[in-house]
Amino acid sequence: MFAGVVLMCLPPLAADQASVCNVLDYGAKSDRSTNNAGAIQKAINACTLAGGTVFFPAGDCLSGTVVLKSNVTLHLSPGATLWGSPRIEDYNPRHLISASGAENIAIEGGGVINGQGEAFWEADFKPKPRPSPLIELYDCRDVRIQDVSIRNAPAWTIHPKNCDRVKIRGISIINHMRGLNTDGIDPDSSRNVIISDCYIEAGDDCIVLKTTARGPGQVLPCENVTVTNCVLISSASALKLGTESHADFRNCVFSNCVIRRSRTGIALLAKDGGLMEGISFSSITMETSPKHGKGVEWPIVIDVEKRRADSRVSKVRDVTFSDIRILTKGRVLVAGMPASPLENLTFRNIVMRITGFEQVEGVSKLRGGTVERQPDVVDLGSTPSAFILGHARGVRLRDFKVIWDTGEPGLERHAIYGEALDDIRIEGFEGRQAVAGGQLAAILLKGARSIYMAGNRAAAGTNVFLRLSGVSESEVVSSGNDLSRARLAMAH
Questions:
Q1: pLDDT tens digits for 190-223?
Q2: What mean pLDDT is predicted for residues 82-99?
Q3: Which residue has the higher pLDDT, 16 or 140?
Q4: Mean pLDDT of all residues in 432-454
Q5: What is the CA radius of gyration of the chain?
Q6: What is the mean pLDDT of the chain?
Q7: What CATH number labels 1-202?
Q8: Share of residues in the chain with pLDDT > 90 (%)
Q9: For 263-284, how does the pLDDT look when each residue is reduced to its tens digit (9 = 90+)?
């Protein structure tokens, strides 16, 4: 039952005097059986006239779709829970909270929004018709979502589409880890977005930037995005750009995040012709694990591939990873395609601690849903190496360390594998192949040009430090390497 102070909605005396509208005063019932959408909508409509707050006191309130309008804040006080209706008929459109073309809107407070996702899945988590996204904000300006807790979204949770100046801070999202498509936050063709201080558990991607072709008009870029100070747990990717990439991604910064129990830590999947550039990831600690205990782990993935035969070719360039700590049984896979090699990539101060060995034979790369396999596909997914790099130019690996901490008999793995590379600098690498004295080289470069090796150090047990395949030794410039513990410094 609702409790707490009852605040009345009074007619404004002046245009700048905001209203506070308590949903109880508009007929909302304190139970989990009455659809209070009509009462809440009346409160929103009253507040939007002069701007104000729709107030939910402590207690339960069930609702279907409500439309948030300009200059209105939904305030869920501590102890208040807004329950999404378990009936799909109560959603029109299919969202709990919807806004279109609104300005200066907010969802705030110490309360909870519960989407009752379990009502929209079969016992095996096969989805029924369901509201998605739970919170849909289309073509809005000056959006703030702060301090609320969101639970059990039936599918996507928060979707700012074609929005400008979005701030999401201090929220928690906990969805069922087996709930299909239960993304956390999906900024889509939006700009000037700040996401900070959030805790997210998601059955799909936690924070994923997209440029989808949804809705009318031209597809807009996703740009000027900052994500920082978040803890993320995902059945899919914790931080991701794509796969939907119909327009560009520019000037996106991800920092100070902890990623745990996630199949993929970071993914850039470019499939639809958009450009990804000016992207950086820094000060991130990640621990990966297989999705629902099955399959392989991908700490970092970059992949360029055409979704369909008639898709435009995407491009990825000017991407930086720095101060990254990885605990994994999996492999990093970074690959362009012959028609669109990756450009200007930097990996700096990276530590990979490998805690076990996956079976890689026959494994395909992480491709994303609804991607048709094309004849010119590049798939290095079965490569036996901790770090896999293909079809790229202008690559910098600096202060990169691979530690084999498996506690079990090792399987043959390279530390670094590179294919079809042009202009690669490896500086300050430390490590060896997985098996001490094993047959594979610590580093294998295949079909590479313009190679610079400096300040690298072979770990004890290194067999061949650098093996070249289809590469002339004249392509290699070497300086200041300590390879005294390698049986052989370089071989073909």
A1: 999 999 999 999 999 999 999 999 777 789 999 9
A2: 98
A3: 140
A4: 97
A5: 25
A6: 94
A7: 2.160.20.10
A8: 91
A9: 999 999 999 999 999 999 999 9
- Average pLDDT on 422-444 reads 97
Distances (CA, A) of 186 to 167, 190, 230, 305: 13, 10, 15, 21
pTM of model > 0.85: yes
User: Where are the chain's structural domains?
Assistant: 1-202, 205-380, 412-492
CB 442 within 8 A of CB 464: yes
- Mean pLDDT in residue range 287-292: 96
**Quick one: three-class SS letters along the chain?**
CCECCCCCCCCCCCCCCCEEEEHHHHCCCCCCCCCCHHHHHHHHHHHHCCCEEEEECEEEEEECCEECCCCEEEEECCCEEEEECCCHHHCCCCCCEEEECCEEEEEECCCEEECCHHHHECCCCCECCCCCCCEEEECCEEEEEECCEEECCCCCCEEEECCEEEEEECCEEECCCCCCCCCCECCECCEEEEEECCEEEECCCCEEEEECCCCCCCCCCEEEEEEECCEEEECCEEEEEEEEECCCEEEEEEEEEEEEEECEEEEEEECCCCEEEEEEEEEEEEEECCECCECCCEEEEEEECCCCCCCCCCEEEEEEEEEEEEEECCCEEEECECCECEEEEEEEEEEEEECCCCCCCCCCCCCCCCCCCCCCCCCCCCCCEEEEEEEEEEEEEEEEEEEECCCCCCCCCEEEEEEEEEEEEEECCEECCCCCCCCCCCEEEECCEEEEEECCEECCCCCEEEEEECCCHHHEEEECCECCCCCEEEEC
- The answer to whether 462 and 433 have CB atoms below 8 angstroms apart is yes
- Contacts with 314 (C-beta within 8 Å, 6 or more apart), sequence order: 245, 270, 271, 272, 273, 274, 275, 276, 304, 340
Q: What is the mean pLDDT of residues 112-139?
A: 97
- pLDDT tens figures, 2-49: 444 333 444 433 334 469 999 999 999 999 999 999 999 999 999 998
Residue with tokens 């990254």: 324
Tokens of residue 40, six digits: 């809440």
